[in-house]
Structure prediction request, 263 residues.
Amino acid sequence: MLRSLILTGAVNGLFFILLLKNKAKVSGSDKILMLWMAIISLQLAFYYDNLAANPAFPAWLQLLSFSLPVVNSPLLYFYIRSLTFGYNFKWRRVSIHLLPFLVFNCLSFYLHYAKNDYLFLKDGFPHFSPALNPGVGYFLTALLAIVPGYYTFMSLFVLLNHQKALPDNYSYTEKINLNWLKWIVVSQLILFAGLFLFIKYGVGYGLTDYPHLFAVVGAILTLYVFFIGFCGLHQDAVPNNVTLPSRPFVEEQTEKLSYKIPG
Prediction:
């Protein structure tokens, strides 16, 4: 049942992309959302394939797909910044945010293909060989945990500042009310905490396994696709001719917070 739900989410992600693309006026926020939907659809297709008896995705695509949360979490953050404070998304400005994704994949591909399967695939998910230095495994695992968590906290920070900046007398306030997005971000924080506990204790003590664990994650992502896709179709961004009081503060703070990964 979960596998069917995950496939539905992947297909609907592509459907929402078509709907967004055919809006009367496609904004910069819509373009970011379309890119986020495309990556989430690929991630859901990865979960769907890995729940099959014989996964069809080749090893390189399985490795690549496993690291997609390191990309979609920054994109959701940029989508929120675009809706709230008119962030102008340009690849040259955000390229540094893709660095964790590149580091993770370069290292995981090297370990899998060049180092006698120090990183191998089992049930469609990466596992570390006992021969691998534990520090390397901890580093890769930390990337998958810290990056999404960092951008989720940053998303919540931007949403809270946006909420404080909206005066009651703005006539467009209802159109840019982002409470729905705030609850999405809060639920993601809860999801990350729960996933960490399940991996540490559930998988570690044999109470569950990776396929069942990520089947649940895929089902939750499917709900996100439906909810964010529907709300995104009807969501307006901050008008370009409006300057919110706290915009300089928020942009200054978010630009100064450089991305750091503990060594």
